[in-house]
Amino acid sequence: MAVGLEMLGCARRVLDDPLSPNVEVRYTAVRLAECLADALRIAESRGRRLPSSDAHDTESAVSSGTGDCAPGVCS
Questions:
Q1: Backbone angles phi, psi at 72, to 5 degrees
Q2: Cβ–Cβ < 8 Å for 28, 10
Q3: What gap in Å lies between CA 32 and CA 36, rounded to an integer?
């Protein structure tokens, strides 16, 4: 996360400067692509470890005894 924040700050400085050399802009774009690839890989990995939202919602409703009742309607 720290690397991504650092890279974002650097990218903003380079892209905000209309006189940034092409090589610097290209380097920034390559690094941003690397950071994005890392973030997507981590999100995908974490997503595989989480239960699906449908399964989680069903388990929560069953364990709490509320099912599909609106608040204040079921006891």
A1: 85, -5
A2: yes
A3: 6
For the question of whether the overall pTM of this predicted structure is more than 0.70, the answer is: no
Intra-chain end-to-end CA distance of the chain, in Å = 44
CB-CB contact of 34 with 54 (8 Å): no
Q: Which residue type, as a one-letter code, is found at position 27?
A: Y
Backbone angles phi, psi at 68, to 5 degrees: -100, 20
Residues 7 and 31: beta-carbon distance below 8 Å: yes
Nearest to residue 8, comparing CAs of 38, 40, 31? 31
**Exposed / middle / buried, residue 10 (Cβ in 10 Å: 0-12, 13-18, 19+):** middle
Task: Quick: pLDDT tens for 15-31.
Answer: 999 999 999 999 999 99
**How many angstroms separate the most distant Cα atoms in the chain?**
67
